[in-house]
Amino acid sequence: MFRVVIAGVLLAASFPPINLWFLAPISIALFYSQLMRAIFKLRLQICALYGLFFFAPLLHWSSTFVGALPWLILTVGETLFFLGLAIFSWDSKITHYFRFAALWVLLEFAREKLPFGGFGWGRVGFSQLPSPLSFYLPIFGITGLTFLTVIFAAVFTKKELRTKSFIFLVATTMIGFGTEYLIDHKVAQKSENSKLNITLIQGGVAQANLNFNNIPMEVFKRHLATTNKYLASKSYAINPADLIIWPENASDLDPITTPEIARDITALGGEFTGDILIGAVLNGEDGPQNAAILYKDNGNIEQYIKRDLAPFGEYIPLRTIAERISPLAKEITDFIPGSNSALFSTENGVFTPLICFELLDDTFATQTNLKSNFLVSITNNATFGKSSEAAQQFLIARVRAYESRKEAAIVSTTGYTGFIDSKGRVMVQAAQFDQSATSREISLNNYQTPISKNRNFPELLVTAIFLLTFYRRKRG
């Protein structure tokens, strides 16, 4: 069982803070080798141990400021999905390799959607941006990249197939490289030959913890001061921004119904000739709402309400039970989700903002890509302190940029804040926890990657592969 523990830890180490992508296939190969020819009871133990030692270090950030109990519950809950891999016996057969990879992907899909809207953190594809197989991200998305990674790892467990599988891996990589070249050409064709100057405001908080917004308007004033400092700077005078973006919860009080905040934003609009996107908490009729509000230079106001709320963070499912388990649940007021998408336009830029963990969900990410010519994600990482949560989330944003082949602007209250190019490379990044204004001119393009246009295709293909592994030709 020691090898299983090591395998689980290696998979966690493929994500930040260690962030060594090649540890994922090594981990999966080691895991599969332990499952081979094991009886059902042993397979259950192996899968449980592997899941626990993967998710426990990966999700340790969830214990920040709230103690070990939520972290342990989340770890166990996510580990339960790994038990699905114990249902079948595994051997060194080609059909078994395909079945294993397909089932792994389907279980990741289930984690992304279930329960309470799901939590797709730790999908293997999110760790594989530097992998030679990442060329397939714009084609098959996270699902396809995970499938390829898992199946190659499983096949490498059979000595007789290692040479052939390595040759096939090289060939697959070369095909991916050729596809990348064709996509580069299409991106260039769809490029609007236009740019957009964006400034990201990381205003920070007085103290990064659960009570970061204890003092009314304190978070807002920090972002306002950082913005005013930028507007008075030489960089703004020389090359003014077309769009300023504040992070999620930057306005800790409703900016529409709070007169002082409304006046400050109006005054800010008088100094700035572009548009301002502000993450804010709104006082909805039925409860608070997590919003992104676009203040246009012509005085119009548009808004998007977050639809994919984080369970146990923005609302409490099974509240009666949750409050018995943890008294902290009583302190959380249920947010009300939005029901509609939004398409914002600014100068020649068109975008739909993603708020915080909406970045995790393939459906929301695709809806964002379809009509946008660049990506925007606003988030608040203050409640996770100096943990690795922010780094892991920023990595997911990089993967989304490459998947959609669009440049991205990511802004957080405390970091990570920065600009990502259309291949997932970090172009500019602000120092974490600093109050800063980070500016860049980004390129816009209307290209739709195959995965953006055919979101459900990879899951359908993998399901078909999984079912085909049970097909047996009749003899005679």
Automatic annotation (TrEMBL):
Spans through the membrane: 6-32, 44-62, 68-88, 133-154, 166-183
Cellular component, GO annotation: plasma membrane
Keyword presence, Transmembrane: yes
Keywords recorded for this protein, A-Z: Acyltransferase, Cell membrane, Membrane, Transferase, Transmembrane, Transmembrane helix
GO annotation terms (biological process): lipoprotein biosynthetic process
Pfam families registered for this protein in UniProt: CN_hydrolase, LNT_N
Membrane topology: Multi-pass membrane protein
Subcellular location: Cell membrane
An annotated Gene Ontology molecular function: N-acyltransferase activity
Family matches, as InterPro entries: Apolipo_AcylTrfase, C-N_Hydrolase, C-N_Hydrolase_sf, LNT_N
Positions of the CN hydrolase domain: 201-444
UniProt-recorded name of the protein: Unannotated protein
Source organism: freshwater metagenome
